[in-house]
Amino acid sequence: MRFEAIPRSQKVARAIVQRIVTAMSEGSLKRGDRLPSEQELAAELGASRIAVREALKILEALGAVEICQGSGTYIPKEPRPPVIDPLQFLLSLGDAQPEHVKELRFMVELGFSRIAQRKITEEELEKLEENLVKLKEAFKKGTVDVELDLEFHHLILEATRNPLVVQLGKSILSLFHDSIEAGVREHPEAPVQHHTLILEAMKSRDPQKLEAALLESYRYWQEHLGPKRKVNGGRKESHEEA
Q1: Beta bridge partners of 47
Q2: Cβ atoms 32, 77 nearer than 8 A
Q3: What is the rounded distance in angstroms from the CA atom of residue 32 to the CA atom of residue 78?
Q4: 103 Cβ partners below 8 Å, 6+ apart?
Q5: Could you report the per-residue pLDDT of 134-167, keeping only the tens digit for each?
Q6: C or N terminus of the chain, fewer CB within 10 Å?
Q7: Is 194:216 a contact under the CB 8 Å cutoff?
Q8: Phi–psi pair at 236, nearest 5 degrees
Q9: Are 161 and 188 in contact (CB under 8 A)?
Q10: What is the structure's pLDDT at 115?
């Protein structure tokens, strides 16, 4: 296959990545196919070999291509684990606005929490209760930290007993590590309040009560710690927590 030249207005390495990913999704490039050489790609795309090499390194890190020294670059015959998180990379490529990423988190968190609510066992509810007790004790001592906060959400994720949901949920939550950390530092009382509501909703098995609890948390952080900056390198820099 041949690639169309990249317009001068586009960021070259990003555009090359997107062209190759599109060719793969459309079936123009299939597993086991060999890509044109760096020189051929540069000529077809109207780009420098440096830009082509940068794009191929990005795709290799994502597990999308395999670079074989002396042989060429191939679409792997078997899926390869990525070196970096694809979701975080795609968000950074898209220059995602903080509000869009927050909405993505709310959508995903509401979804996995509903699944967990249907499946959660008494033992798993006890683990959530234990985490909440630790969180309350930490609040009294002034030692609330991000890891204790995230543990609560991870316990809910694990209660879905769905490895695909767990992986996606952890990827989304990892985007918010820095903002959650800032949130619990500035408003340490909020995780205690919101996690209490979420746990009560999980126990009730009432999906409407669960949605209301998560929405209350979402609105609180919208009001108190609104977006300040864009996502940078897959990490959201504004403050918010749920």
Answers
A1: none
A2: yes
A3: 8
A4: none
A5: 999 999 999 998 999 999 999 999 999 998 899 8
A6: N
A7: yes
A8: -80, 130
A9: no
A10: 98
Copy the structure tokens of residue 69.
């020294």
Of 112-121, 157-166, 219-228, 232-241, give the lowest mean pLDDT range: 232-241
Euclidean distance between CA atoms 79 and 31, whole angstroms: 9
Question: Residue 175 is which amino acid?
Answer: L
Which tokens hold the place of 87? 């979701």
Q: The tokens 């949605």 sit on which residue?
A: 211
**Strand, helix or coil at 4?**
coil
Sole residue written with tokens 């683990």: 127
- Bridge partner residues of 83 (DSSP): none
Q: How far apart are CA 31 and CA 23, in angstroms?
A: 12
Nearest-angstrom CA–CA distance, 171 and 119? 21
Alpha-carbon torsion angle 64, 66, 71, 72, nearest 10: 30
Residue 153 is encoded by which pair of tokens? 């959400």
For 68-92, what is the mean pLDDT? 74
